[in-house]
Amino acid sequence: MVVNKDFQQTVNKALVLRSVLAEHGITRAALSRKLGMYRSTVSNLTEHLLMEGWLRELGTDSKAPGVGRKGTCLAINEKKGVVAGIDIKRKGRYEIVLLSPLGERLGQTQGRAHYPQSFSSLLHHILQHAQKEVAPMKRPILGMGIAVVGPVDRERQSIVTSPHYADADGFALSSIQPSYDFPLFIENDTHCCAHGKAWQDPLADDFAYLYLNSPTTHTRHLAFGLSFRINGKPYHGAHHLAGEFPRMFTRRLERDFRDQIAEILADPAESHSRFAVSLNHAADDFLNMVQFFDPRTLFLGHHLERFQPEIESYLASRSSEISFAVDFAGVGPDEAAYGAACLSLEQVYAVPNPGA
Predict the structure, then answer these.
(1) For residue 307, what are the contacts with CB-CB under 8 A and spacing of at least 6?
(2) What is the pLDDT of residues 45-60, one digit of tens each?
(3) Residue 117: count of CB within 10 angstroms of its CB
(4) Which of 61, 183, 202, 297 could serve as 207's disulfide partner, Cβ 3.0–4.6 Å?
(5) Around Cβ 249, how many Cβ atoms within 10 Å?
(6) How many CB atoms lie under 10 A from the CB of residue 221?
(7) 17: which residues sit within 8 A by CB, 6+ positions away?
């Protein structure tokens, strides 16, 4: 395959950006060694990135050994722009999280659009709300990630089926992308949570993430999501669809089990003792699936922390069968929206594929 010079420069820029992101304050000389590029090539790339506003210089490297000329340290320009993450919930409710190019939180909000209306109109309303949140920052939007419940075709960037919005079945982002001058991305909400965890902990290559969706007093609808990240990439199942696992498991959960969780979440003072039996009933399916993929760690989402004693008791009963660590360090209360923003960041720093 013949790769033209412009494309190769784009790839090299992405490699430089990812290296600077991973090592704040790295010098051009260190970049040259790390990437195996000539110093002149690295200098040319960094000059372009400085002019484009992606990088900024921090000053000379005072820790460098020797008495010669010290190299200049480089960093990602956190004011280059903003990425947004949107979690679309039931009945027009949504959450928005804004991040800098460094992944720092710049803001978060939530809202509710009038519904019923078409899913396309609902999404336009939410995107416009996100744009209004960014406007006072006077920074360009680099991308927006959208988290939704249900299976998503990642390659086509479309919703396969939606349990919340009937007219969203088959909805493709390409139908609204021309209305916006920044890229849009869509992913299943549980996979977004896993993206957020991977951004927080870049060393977490192989893990599972269990997510309890919509545990609020506004609705009794509850669903579990299970995401796997294998060799640094989300696993999308046999049909390459995000959200296959959540749908498989949600259908098998008994309604009385979901209702019990809803009652407990609605009244935090309620005793959790009667919940333990139902937890064991559902947990076997989850744990058996996780065991099959054998990740290093199973992360339990933010809302599952409320049931830590019951979960720990259950895990203790199966400790001889479990080969992975279990960690309650979820990514936070707005985990799906935050993860959707991290999905956008991953795309910002992605190295282009010539075969794509």
Answers:
(1) 272, 275, 279
(2) 999 999 999 999 987 7
(3) 14
(4) 297
(5) 18
(6) 17
(7) 49, 54, 55, 76, 349
**31-47 per-position pLDDT tens digit:** 999 999 999 999 999 99
Pairing of strands 233-234, 241-242: unpaired
The residues near 70 (Cβ < 8 Å, ≥ 6 apart) are 60, 61, 62, 64
- Dist CA 228 CA 222 (whole Å): 20
For residue 274, name the pLDDT band (cuts at 50, 70, 90): very low
**CA 343, CA 86: separation in Å to the nearest integer?**
11
pTM of the complete model beyond 0.90: no
In which order are the strands placed within the sheet that holds 152-153? Answer: 158-159, 152-153, 241-242
Q: Kindly state the tokens that stand for 332.
A: 């936070």
Strand order through the sheet with 72-76:
26-27, 72-76, 55-60
Answer yes or no: are the C-beta atoms of 85 and 144 closer than 8 Å. Answer: yes
Lowest-pLDDT choice from 44-53, 65-74, 80-89, 194-203 = 65-74
H or E element that contains 110:
strand 105-112
Q: What are the residues whose beta carbons fall under 8 Å from the beta carbon of 319, sequence distance 6 or more?
A: none
Sheet holding 223-230, edge to edge: 233-234, 223-230, 207-213, 297-300, 325-327
**Rg, Å, the chain Cα set:** 22
| C-alpha span between 127 and 123 (Å, rounded) | 6
Euclidean distance between CA atoms 316 and 108, whole angstroms? 37
188 vs 63 pLDDT, higher one: 188
Q: Tell me the pLDDT tens digit for each residue of 138-165.
A: 999 999 999 998 888 888 999 988 888 9
Can you give the pLDDT at residue 138? 95
Contacts of 324 (CB under 8 A, 6+ apart): 208, 290, 294, 295, 296, 297, 298
Compute the half-sphere exposure of residue 111: CA atoms within 13 Å on the CB side of its CA. 18
Percent above pLDDT 90 for the chain: 42
Q: Which domains does the chain have, with CATH numbers?
A: 5-76 (1.10.10.10), 80-356 (3.30.420.40)
Show Cβ contacts of residue 228 under 8 Å, excluding neighbours closer than 6 positions. 194, 207, 208, 209, 234, 235, 245, 293, 295
